[in-house]
Amino acid sequence: MNPGTSWEFTDDRGHLTVADHHPTRVVAYIQAGATLWDHGLRPLGIFGSHHDGDTPDPAKAGELPLAELRHFGAGSDLDLDALRAAEPDLVVAVSYGGGQVYGIDPEAAKHLEERIPVVVIEVGKDRSLDGVRDRFTELARALRTTLRPAEAELERAERRLRAVTARPGRPRVLALSAAGADTAYLARPLTWPDLRSLTELGVELIEPEAAGGANWRTAEWSEAAALAPGILLTDVRANAAPRDRLQDNAHWRALEERARIVPWNPEAPSSHRAHARFLDTVSDALETVTADGA
């Protein structure tokens, strides 16, 4: 902190964000807002991404009291005039690489930052899950949040998962996002911080064929079924197709019959508490499938 400024923070673009007073009116990307809420900060409002609709995606919201917060839109429909009129003193955004603000059109992000201090936290493949969580913790501390991180809860969940994965007969796990009744996006585990963390804790995640995109492989459901996972981590965000739209596909039904279906949120809050919950959910599934002899 420099003597002549009230608040500053260097974000993951290397930008020194300076505010003329300590921020108390924070607008955040919904995942960032949910993370800060877990640290005890109540955001003034939130915004979504191009994948979101007119209302906030509950899967990304964590424990945010959505009915009590202002929603400024998502993606190209972000209402910059309304956001500026709300007079926030800080905007917290995320990036998936290159420092580009996620969920806001580049030109809109530029205009926003000309008027309001913006902090960007990197959440993409080049950072570990621990690294993402630690950066949000640093920001939360700089914002003088009221709650201590649930470090002991996370350490317990990590110990539990390590113990579960050390048992013989552990099932293989496939993570995916349902595109629709005909296709699925198969996740590449090493490009997702939370999935990479699972592999480090001993979970055997299935790597799809190399051809395709950097983070996902677009595949027919027959390919997913042929991988024969014992556990299926399925994207629960609003942009993923819900399970009831998949029932006409025989390969999906085969997956559903054979594998234990576990909810997976690629944009979960990046807090100790949320990560502990996720690890416990995976541990629960592994214990059940192993006990059933899968």
From TrEMBL:
PANTHER family: FERRIC ENTEROBACTIN-BINDING PERIPLASMIC PROTEIN FEPB (PTHR30532:SF24), IRON III DICITRATE-BINDING PERIPLASMIC PROTEIN (PTHR30532). It comes from Streptomyces corynorhini. Residues 63-255 form the Fe/B12 periplasmic-binding domain. This is ABC transporter substrate-binding protein. GO terms for cellular component: outer membrane-bounded periplasmic space. Pfam families: Peripla_BP_2. Keywords: Coiled coil, Signal, Transport. SUPFAM superfamilies: Helical backbone' metal receptor. Gene3D superfamilies: Nitrogenase molybdenum iron protein domain.
